[in-house]
Amino acid sequence: MSNPFSRRASSLSGPGVDYVPVTPDDLTDLGDVAASLYVEGGGAVTFTTVKGPVRTVTVPDHGWIVCGAARVHATGTTASGIHAVVVS
Fold this sequence. Notes:
Helix content: under 10%
Oligomer: single chain
Low-confidence stretches: none
Mean pLDDT: 89
Number of strands: 7
């Protein structure tokens, strides 16, 4: 099988290279910074942006948060099935 990504440099404008399930945690950053977050079950998502502030956003079922995220907090998060889209 050929890999169409093998010669591509990682880029925020390109496709993600992995889709990682997220377990919200108040003390631990994500393993890789997320370029965006996908939410299966709608609700509130509290997260630390890559710039540093903590934000809470309410998203619908199958919603997206298109913002770089370093951490997804347990406190304040009611959404379920959260996934991080990583680009590197």
